């Protein structure tokens, strides 16, 4: 039976994910071997296959864990009893902060999504679509209530914002002049300015 934790109590699945994330970010998914992952995590191949059926499963989980966090946070923001403009601003900023907080995960995903099996690729696309649809519903709520302009279709507004989010991994640096929250505030403000009637 594979041990579930190491000496400091870190569960083996988290150790494997941390090692895989670091290696995928540094060397690329296709240039990282299962052997390198298990050595970096300090476990056996048996332990990896106990928790993850394949390297492909690890890649899927790297992105899925970030998307789960973002979906939970978006659902909480969208369901809050606050004006729609406030909820959209908070949601727009939150996806920026959570992406920057998981920049390795995001960059790995966008560089390596094509390595996923067709089934996992379809799953990820469905999960991302669910997130985008919930975000779009907030924009549409604001447009229906007259708070936001209807001049630009909600789909295009969502694509505009997420285009910015998806490019964060290509330029954002923690050593740069802006904190994650400052970047989030600027991008959220840009989005709201574009939506005002």
UniProtKB/TrEMBL annotation:
<feature type="domain" description="HTH tetR-type">
    <location>
        <begin position="10"/>
        <end position="70"/>
    </location>
</feature>
<protein>
    <submittedName>
        <fullName>TetR family transcriptional regulator</fullName>
    </submittedName>
</protein>
<keyword id="KW-0238">DNA-binding</keyword>
<keyword id="KW-0804">Transcription</keyword>
<dbReference type="InterPro" id="IPR009057">
    <property type="entry name" value="Homeodomain-like_sf"/>
</dbReference>
<dbReference type="InterPro" id="IPR001647">
    <property type="entry name" value="HTH_TetR"/>
</dbReference>
<dbReference type="InterPro" id="IPR041490">
    <property type="entry name" value="KstR2_TetR_C"/>
</dbReference>
<keyword id="KW-0678">Repressor</keyword>
<dbReference type="Pfam" id="PF00440">
    <property type="entry name" value="TetR_N"/>
</dbReference>
<dbReference type="InterPro" id="IPR036271">
    <property type="entry name" value="Tet_transcr_reg_TetR-rel_C_sf"/>
</dbReference>
<dbReference type="Pfam" id="PF17932">
    <property type="entry name" value="TetR_C_24"/>
</dbReference>
<dbReference type="InterPro" id="IPR023772">
    <property type="entry name" value="DNA-bd_HTH_TetR-type_CS"/>
</dbReference>
<dbReference type="InterPro" id="IPR050109">
    <property type="entry name" value="HTH-type_TetR-like_transc_reg"/>
</dbReference>
<feature type="DNA-binding region" description="H-T-H motif">
    <location>
        <begin position="33"/>
        <end position="52"/>
    </location>
</feature>
<keyword id="KW-0805">Transcription regulation</keyword>
């Amino acid at each position: 039976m594979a041990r579930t934790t190491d000496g400091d109590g870190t569960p083996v699945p988290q150790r494997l994910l941390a090692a895989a994330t670091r290696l995928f970010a540094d060397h690329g998914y296709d240039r990282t071997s299962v052997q390198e992952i298990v050595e970096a995590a300090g476990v056996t191949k048996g332990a990896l296959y106990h928790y993850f059926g394949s390297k492909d499963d690890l890649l899927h989980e790297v992105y899925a864990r970030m998307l789960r966090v973002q979906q939970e946070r978006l659902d909480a923001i969208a369901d809050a009893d606050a004006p729609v403009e406030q909820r959209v601003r908070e949601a727009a900023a939150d996806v920026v902060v959570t992406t920057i907080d998981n920049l390795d995960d995001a960059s790995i995903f966008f560089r390596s999504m094509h390595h996923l099996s067709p089934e996992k690729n379809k799953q990820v696309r469905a999960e991302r679509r669910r997130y985008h649809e919930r975000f779009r519903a907030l924009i549409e709520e604001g447009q229906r209530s007259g708070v936001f302009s209807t001049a630009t279709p909600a789909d295009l507004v969502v694509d505009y914002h997420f285009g910015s989010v998806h490019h964060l991994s290509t330029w954002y640096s923690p050593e740069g002049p802006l904190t994650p929250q400052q970047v989030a505030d600027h991008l959220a403000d840009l989005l709201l300015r574009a939506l005002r009637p």
